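From the shared-data thread, chain only:
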Amino acid sequence: MEDLILSFINPLPIIFLLGIIAVSLYTLSKGADLLIDEAVAVSSYLNVPKAIIGATIVSLGTTLPELSVSTMAAIQGSPDMALGNAVGSIITNSGLIIGLAALLKPIDIDRSSIKIQGWLKLLSAGMLIAFSLPFFSAGSEGTISQMMGFLFVAMLIAYLYWSFQESKRESALSENKNDEVASKAEIIKKFLLMGVGMAIVILSSQVLIPTVEVTAIKLGVPKSIIAATLVAFGTSLPELTTSIKAVLRGHGDLAVGNIIGADILNVLFVIGVSAAVTPEGLLVPALFYRIHYPAMAVILLTFRFVTLNKGNIIRRREGAILMAFYMIYLGMNLTNFI
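Structure, as tokens:
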């Protein structure tokens, strides 16, 4: 699909490209509005915390771009792109997106709903780093083997099953029962509308990012800067739009749940499937040990720390710290490219 979009937009003058960008941003915003509204409605109807809805259903939808890009890159023989896209998205999600959202408005969080998911997020990232070490590989370099990919996918199935059971338990224990009794047809309609919202967000992102890239090239922006910013940022755009919209509309727990779920899925779903479809696995370049993995570890540990504070809120200064770590990571990448 990206090739088709590029073949259409490449010949266009800059003024038309700017128009496409404006329309894509508008549809992206409206798709995020629809997704958030229906996710909140589903949460209310089923008496399930919004953080759990965000960590499962919403994050599954917003992680599809990363899955598509990484899986195709792995199949086409670009394991560094497959791995870099997923790891870069994790760093972007927890550093840039939560940091920016908290700077715009302090984020209220539901610690009880994300308590286990928060630790699962750290565990999955720790497993990724550990399995990438040469100790687990047949050769002298680190490799995420096909067998490890299947293990991640098995863990994904277990995680989704546990999340489903947890949502049923939360619904049964909820003290704030919704007085409005929704029919099965109404709930199905809400899920379908959530799907429409996800589709609008993902399709708008797929049009927006190549258009921005082509526009930047035509305006003379160095390709090294484009490469260091747009790949992971582009596939994280659904999470960015959904999370910031959710925070600004007072659904911070949905935003945080979305980011936690997306980061877990980036490891178990995106990297798992990408490794599982390649018999030789995903080779881990040395750059990951020097820059990407250390940055991911620092940002995820900081994110976990700020979600454990007793105030049940991610403050602006904590958002600024996450943003600062992301900017340092971005600077290290640019230094490596230049």
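The longest strand covers residues 107-108.
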